[in-house]
Amino acid sequence: MTKIRSLRIGITIGLRDAAESMWVNGIKQNALYLAKLFQHSPHQHEVVLVNTTAVEITSRLPWDLQRFPVRSFADAKDSLDVLIELGGQIDREQTSYLRSRGTKIVSYCCGPEYVQMMEAMIFSRRMCDSVFINQQYDQVWVIPQVMETSAHFFGVLRRQPVREVPFVWDPMCLDMRTRELPFSGEYRPRNTPKRLSIMEANINVLKFCLYPLLIAESAYRKVGGGISFVHVTNAEHLARNSPEFIGIAQHLDLVRDGKVSFVGRHDTPQFLSEHTDIVVSHQWGLALNYFYFDACWNGYALVHNAHLCRDVGYFYPGNDVEEGSNQLVRAIEHHNDDWQAYRARQRKAIRPFLSTHEPLIARYDELLFALVGDPGAGS
Are residues 42 and 121 part of one domain? Predict the structure, then answer.
């Protein structure tokens, strides 16, 4: 008979506000999805989110605190078999304490830190006042989309071989946010010219709005009135303060014809529901993203070049603007023909990434039990 062993697992988060939104960035969502995956293991792991900041833990946090409890490091430190450092960093003293009591510590890397650090150095974009590189982890886990840019950066500095681990997503946060929106935030056809949205973060070179703008422009030259408007979020500062951005934009027919707005930051699910028929996206070295799944799960056409999820949306390769515009025209002209079947196909394509997907759960159990030196328990 297979031995069932439950592990006590902590996943770090770094709260900045006692009522922090899950849509500020993806890191809180990442912690919740990973916690949910561990909870669905047949080994029935006990999971707690460990806050590494001094922010008070209150009932104002937007997730179910009964299902996903949050503890301070001080309250959690004596009851963990494994601590996964994901969204908040532990210091030298905390690391030493955990190691002294036999807790295994994993660095779970889900950000392109090499690129972020490189940009901070070159462009004086301050990320921190001092750099602490923890070199006392038991293992370093890296998700697929940051392996290319950052795996060796992590491995050399953290003095551990890097293990690639699966990407995990879940519709729970999306469902929570879209509950009160029309049609629960799901796409519905409109018999009007299409509204395009470009929602890149525009904070580094990895996800920037210029290539999607070029794709939209190329499609506009082909279908004209088939496009009613293009919204570009997280771009107001560029349209106001960047001579280079302004200079390029002024050469686009979309801009000359008054078909584009450059606006600030917006909540993704609500913006999709209220302003969007088709999303146009581009990434460079970050070929998986929650945003893609948030859009496609609810049936929105997504034109993108993320090769690690090429089966979702309307895929174009690399920086191929012409093929991107072809895919966009295809979405403009035919997405409504089978929009319900499209949504079903998207959910099937996303299923292997779900926190409830049994092979994904089994892979993480293998990783966990190898980490604690009990490979038989993971069988």
Answer: yes
Chain centre distance of CA 65: 22
Its domain, for residue 367, covers 8-170+354-378
Using one digit for the tens of pLDDT, what is the confidence trace for 137-164?
A: 999 999 999 999 999 999 999 999 999 9
Domain of 314, CATH number, reads 3.40.50.2000
**DSSP per-residue letters across 288-337:** --HHHHHHHHTT-EEEE--GGGTTSSEE--TT-HHHHHHHHHHHHHHGGG
Write down the pTM of the prediction.
Answer: 0.93
In angstroms, the CA 267 to CA 129 distance is 30
Q: Is 35 helix (H, G, I), strand (E, B) or coil?
A: helix
Tens digit of each residue's pLDDT (9 = 90 or more) over 51-92: 999 999 998 998 999 999 999 999 999 999 999 999 999 999
51 has which bridge partners?
Answer: 13, 72
**Does residue 61 share a domain with residue 145?**
yes
Residue 369 backbone zone (phi > 0: left; psi -120 to 50: alpha; other: beta): alpha
